[in-house]
């Protein structure tokens, strides 16, 4: 029996594979239909114009459901392994709340795509991104702390170090995304860049 066939291990695997597929398929569709330039487009731009917008939305909604299921299973797992430790139980409840908020943010991203004709949708989309990535990073921090508190009784230090590495990688990605957005809005490279889906060779 493969490891992901044991218990509910298939949930996190399905979450990662499906979420990656949702970005890849919408990207491929947008490139094939010439809706965006192929060189590193903004993720949200690959889900702006139909039909990739429809694909982007439905697949991210399913990702949000898989995420909620995965986080609930993690919550029950931590609770079952530490029934007597009140500190871990409280932190576990906080983690579940943060995880569900992050998944709700993913639903907002999926259903309020960036539309050039409706600027208000852009701000709602950004709120969803902040919930997904910002609150999601805090969820990862809570899970890292839980892994630290649960060693060595429940698992080895390796699990803690893996979670810490993933957390640092996630935080560095968020920082790079924030810096890129600040540069984009700074006006150094032109105006109305947020609304642009195609670039001219003469532009910086």
Automatic annotation (TrEMBL):
An example Gene Ontology biological process:
regulation of autophagy
- Record keywords: Membrane, Transmembrane, Transmembrane helix
Q: Which residues cross the membrane?
A: 12-35, 55-73, 94-114, 120-146, 167-191
What domain of life does the UniProt record list for this protein's source?
Eukaryota
Residue ranges of every copy of the CWH43-like N-terminal domain listed in the record? 8-182
Q: How does it sit in the membrane?
A: Multi-pass membrane protein
In which compartments does the protein localize?
A: Endomembrane system
**Predominant subcellular localization, coarse grouping:** membrane
Q: Which Pfam families does the entry mention?
A: Frag1
Gene Ontology CC terms, in alphabetical order: endomembrane system; lysosome
User: What InterPro entries does the database record attribute to this sequence?
Assistant: CWH43_N, DRAM/TMEM150_Autophagy_Mod
Query: What family does the entry list?
Result: Belongs to the DRAM/TMEM150 family.
Q: Which PANTHER family match?
A: DNA DAMAGE-REGULATED AUTOPHAGY MODULATOR PROTEIN 2 (PTHR21324:SF10), FASTING-INDUCIBLE INTEGRAL MEMBRANE PROTEIN TM6P1-RELATED (PTHR21324)
This one is known as DNA damage-regulated autophagy modulator protein 2
Source organism of the structure: Podiceps cristatus (Great crested grebe)
Lineage of the native species?
Eukaryota, Metazoa, Chordata, Craniata, Vertebrata
């Amino acid at each position: 029996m493969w490891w992901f066939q044991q218990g509910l291990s298939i949930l996190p695997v399905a979450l990662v594979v499906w979420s990656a597929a949702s970005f890849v398929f919408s990207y491929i569709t947008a490139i094939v239909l010439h809706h965006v330039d192929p060189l590193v487009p903004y993720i949200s731009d690959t889900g702006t114009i139909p039909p990739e917008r429809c694909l982007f939305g439905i697949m991210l909604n399913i990702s949000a459901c898989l995420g909620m299921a995965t986080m609930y299973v993690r919550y029950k797992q931590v609770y079952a392994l530490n029934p007597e430790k009140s500190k871990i139980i409280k932190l576990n409840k906080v983690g579940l709340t943060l995880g569900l908020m992050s998944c709700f943010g993913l639903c907002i991203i999926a259903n309020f795509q960036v539309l050039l004709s409706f600027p208000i949708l852009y701000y709602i989309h950004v709120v969803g991104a902040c919930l997904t990535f910002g609150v999601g990073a805090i969820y990862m921090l809570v899970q890292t702390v839980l892994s630290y508190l649960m060693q060595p009784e429940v698992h080895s230090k390796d699990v803690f170090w893996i979670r810490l590495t993933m957390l640092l990688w996630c935080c560095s990605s968020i920082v790079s995304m924030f810096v890129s957005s600040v540069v984009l809005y700074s006006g150094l490279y032109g105006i109305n860049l947020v609304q642009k889906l195609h670039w001219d060779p003469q532009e910086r």
